[in-house]
Design goal:
Blueprint: E1 9-12, H1 17-25, E2 29-30, E3 39-41, H2 44-50, E4 64-65, H3 72-75, H4 77-93, H5 122-131, E5 156-157, E6 160-173, E7 176-181, E8 185-188, H6 203-206, H7 210-213, E9 226-228, H8 229-240, H9 242-263, E10 275-283, E11 289-295, H10 305-322, E12 345-350, H11 351-364, E13 378-380, E14 386-388
Parallel strand pairs: 1-2, 1-3, 3-4
Antiparallel strand pairs: 5-6, 6-7, 6-8, 6-10, 7-12, 8-9, 10-11, 13-14
Length: about 400
């Protein structure tokens, strides 16, 4: 007992080197779930059990876990759509431009690959739902499925389709505190895009998932079919211009913020919880971003050496934010990390600091004119330095 006194005790369900090596490097001690842990990197199943009413488990002030109890409100597509629809109705009532409709009455802003298949006729869905026929052999038996519209005009690079994997850390939903990781990446298909119906079943043309692409004949083990976000930004600036690239990333950031705001009213914002989401986003030829899905447990498996370095850094930076000072956790802290603790994370949105900045602006400018733009506020901290409240 004396050997572990004063040390953070961790447990994890995932035997991933980027996790365990980060924990042990900090001098943390591994314990079992049944023991008195301080930090738990759990599976969503274990989190569900911990917060289940049947278990009667109550977390102490020195315990932190990596999922919110009902994260599925964001990460299950059917529930995410339901929440976004409700949120959009609220925006429409307020006259918000994000609820804008086009001339046809449609909203302008809409919202691992196993079991995904493509169809181009409604009759194929009807046939499948009736007798299980008309779908590719790799698809599992009947289950609940989501029908998602195919993006007809994806942006191609080198003739190939790709999507973005972006990491977003949320430490609180009320108030909303979210951080964007700079070191996300693009995932490319190995075969050039072809919209012909004859290629519908060729997953190497249509699905960017690494779990699928790694089985392709042209898969490259050295780079894993990935580009860094930095490389993508350089490419887009060179081909589309800086203004278009900047607008795209503003749109992506707003897309993520509004997806989080959509689930904010229903998410159980337990102070013991944080969560790192994997956002999958596609871009069309007009540089419009489309949210494909949000993952509660983005893969921590490394496919290349660069991938491992990035994911190790991701976990390290998360730990520096959620457990400041590397001490025993105390969930009663104000969840406003020092700027130096952010590492490769940037503030995406901090609702608490935004509110404080607004109050400060109102007090300083009694004529009602705010001195700070609503999309780019900063709040002065105790050290006299500006703390960003939103990414811009």
């Amino acid at each position: 007992m004396a050997a572990t006194a004063g040390k953070v005790k961790f447990c994890t369900d995932l035997e991933k080197s980027v996790l365990v090596e980060n924990f042990t490097k900090r001098g943390w001690v591994r314990v079992d779930q049944e023991d008195g842990w301080n930090f738990y990197w759990s599976s969503v199943h274990s989190t569900r059990n911990i917060f289940s009413l049947e278990t009667g488990y109550r977390l102490a002030d020195d315990q932190v876990i990596n999922h919110f109890p009902n994260h599925y409100e964001l990460t299950r597509k059917d529930l995410m759509v339901k929440n976004i629809k409700r949120y959009r109705k609220d925006l429409e009532k307020d006259g918000n431009s994000l609820a804008e409709r086009d001339e046809t009455g449609r909203y302008v802003y809409l919202a691992q690959g196993v079991g995904i298949f493509l169809v181009n006729k409604l009759s194929q869905i009807k046939k499948w739902s009736r007798d299980g026929r008309g779908i590719p052999a790799h698809v599992p038996g009947k289950d609940a499925y989501i029908i998602q519209r195919y993006l007809e005009d994806p942006l191609l690079i080198g003739g190939k389709k790709f999507d973005l994997r972006l990491y977003v850390l949320v430490t609180s939903y009320r108030p909303l505190k979210a951080y964007m990781y700079r070191l996300g990446f693009c995932r490319f298909c190995t075969v050039k895009y072809n919209s012909s119906t004859s290629e519908l079943e060729n997953m190497f043309v249509h699905l960017t998932n690494v779990s699928i692409q790694k089985h392709a004949e042209k898969y490259n083990d050295s780079h894993g079919g990935k580009w860094s976000i930095h490389n993508l930004k350089m490419y887009l600036e060179g081909t589309r211009g800086k203004e278009a690239n900047d607008k795209l990333w503003d749109d992506i950031h707003w897309l993520i913020v509004h997806s989080l705001k959509a689930v904010q009213p229903v998410m159980a914002s337990d102070r013991h919880c944080f969560e790192c989401y994997g956002y999958d986003i596609m871009i069309d030829t007009a540089l419009k971003p489309w949210l494909i899905e949000v993952n509660a447990s983005p893969s921590l498996t490394s496919t290349t050496a660069a991938d491992r370095v990035m994911k190790y850094s991701l976990i390290s930076d998360i730990l520096n934010i959620v457990i400041p000072g590397r001490d025993i956790p105390d969930v009663r802290w104000n969840k406003i990390p020092a700027k130096k603790a952010l590492g490769n994370f940037d503030v995406l949105y901090d609702e608490e600091l935004e509110r404080l900045a607004h109050l400060s602006d109102t007090a300083d400018g009694r004529d009602g004119k705010s001195r700070a733009a609503a999309a780019g506020r900063s709040q002065t901290g105790k050290d006299g330095k500006k703390q960003l409240t939103i990414w811009k």
